[in-house]
Amino acid sequence: MVSLPRVVITGVGLASPNGANLAEFRGNLLAGKSGVRKYSIRHVGETLAGVADFDALRYQTRKEVRRGTRAGSIAIFCAHEALVDSGLATGRFDIARDKRYAPERIGVFPGITEHGNVETENQIHEVAQYGFDLAFWSHHHNPRTVANNPAGEVTLNLGITGPAYCLGGACAAGNLGLIHGMQLLQLGQIDLALGGGVSESIHTFGIFASFKSQGALAAHADPSKASRPFDKARNGIVVSEGGCLFALERLDDARARGAKIYAEVLGYAVNSDAADFVLPQSAGQAACMRAALRHAGVAAREVDVINTHATSTPQGDEVEAAAIRDVFADCPTTFVNNTKSFIGHAMGAAGALELAGNLPSLTDRVVHPTINVDDLDPACAVPNLVLGEPVTAGRVDTVLNMSFGMLGINSAVVVGRLR
Fold first, then answer.
1. Distance CA 261, CA 9 (A)
2. Could you tell me if 49 and 202 are in contact, meaning their C-beta atoms sit under 8 angstroms apart?
3. 171 a catalytic residue
4. pLDDT tens across 106-160, in order?
5. What is the assigned CATH class of domain 7-256?
6. To the nearest whole percent, how much of the chain has pLDDT over 70?
7. Among this protein's residues, is 331 annotated catalytic?
8. Considering only CA atoms, which of 251, 146, 141, 247 is closest in space to residue 195?
9. Which one of 78, 171, 244, 380 is the catalytic residue?
10. Is residue 229 within 8 Å of 340, Cβ to Cβ?
11. What CA–CA distances, in Å, run from 79 to 153, 178, 232, 293?
């Protein structure tokens, strides 16, 4: 059997509803601070959302922001921040002090849930103001709406000439971007990957309208309490935007340049339920988790933290809890938490952001809590669910990050403290 190179995370760049860097994001997770707020969007009106506050002009000009997309700006910000965090860049357009990472050997792989909806809705709205005179239709529409846009905008901004494209994986996409980057590193196709996920979902009214029509859009008088996975009173999803890209390198390369290492990517799995357009299946989720553990060479009892996908939908949370109880039935030291309770559901970015929020646990052994669970639904009860306040664990060597999505896609990534 061929031994594949080990792959590690050396940089994290993120933009979330409650933090625009890992330290701020993590601090707010430990402090119980939600990033959900009141939000208004045409045709839907007043609702709730997670809005990512970040400085797009840190790495783009105003003209570039106007010409491009929100998802592109998020991806550019996250890419630069990941490179800076990894020590491979010091500022705008300074890609690689380490000249081994030539631009053609860098890959960019953001996962996405949807792309182009925002731009198309905006264009239709604009021409409607002019009697649908297509002279007012932007010539930027096509490059804004192609599925590879966020990855392409990163390459244009940074001068990266290696492979760059998006991974469409519904709400499992944030894991897929990381997984794909790891695979190409192990195949020797690239030397550095920027992988993770991005989402501009809150800027399309269609996603709010669709969840509302399904009875799956969260509502609460207090926005900070609207996202409430596992709670009896949960009533739907809080739609959020954001992004997270990881700098991924082969371990030997990272060590050679003296890079700090957040974690090693130990294994992963992706599968499909093949059962329903929107309803998840416990059997498929459990199978995905087991496959990821096998790939990582990790027993269930060795997992110290499970970050759940739970989105605050009545059925979805129950299904996932059942899958966790199935796989981790005899794991008394495994803690379980949820990040969406703080930021809502960032769609294509969700998996990457949720993994990022748990990476520091490998160093400080502190497990961030799930908030807003005032009355735990017995159907969602799992052992060692961390509620309300952080918990300091005796050991955090391994983290399992789970992300699932519509049309039955399931993903799981296992990371571990470097040994």
1. 6
2. yes
3. yes
4. 999 999 998 889 999 999 999 999 999 999 999 999 999 999 999 999 999 999 9
5. alpha beta
6. 97
7. no
8. 247
9. 171
10. yes
11. 11, 13, 39, 29
- Cβ contacts of 137 within 8 Å, gap of 6 or more: 123, 126, 127
Catalytically annotated residue among 309, 331, 368, 380:
309
Question: pTM surpassing 0.85?
Answer: yes
Tokens 């031994």 — which residue? 3
Q: Which burial class, exposed, middle or buried, applies to 117 when counting CB atoms under 10 A from its CB (0-12, 13-18, 19+)?
A: middle
Residue ranges of domains in the chain: 7-256, 268-412
pLDDT digits (tens, 9 = 90+) for 320-341: 999 999 999 999 999 999 999 9
Residue 93 has pLDDT above 90, yes or no: no
* Topology of domain 268-412, CATH: Peroxisomal Thiolase; Chain A, domain 1 (3.40.47)
Q: Is 345 a catalytic residue?
A: yes
Equal fold, 7-256 vs 268-412: yes
Tokens (6 digits) for 233: 């009173």
Report the distance separating Cα 239 and Cα 337, nearest Å. 19
The per-residue pLDDT for range 232-242, each reduced to its tens digit, is 999 999 999 99
Nearest to 315 by CA among 351, 344, 276: 276
SS3 306: strand
Amino acid in position 269: A
- Total residue length of the chain: 419
Token look-up 């519509």 returns 406
Cβ within 8 Å of residue 326, ≥6 positions away: 282, 286
Determine how β-strand 242-250 pairs with β-strand 7-15.
Answer: antiparallel
Name the token pair of 115: 């792309």
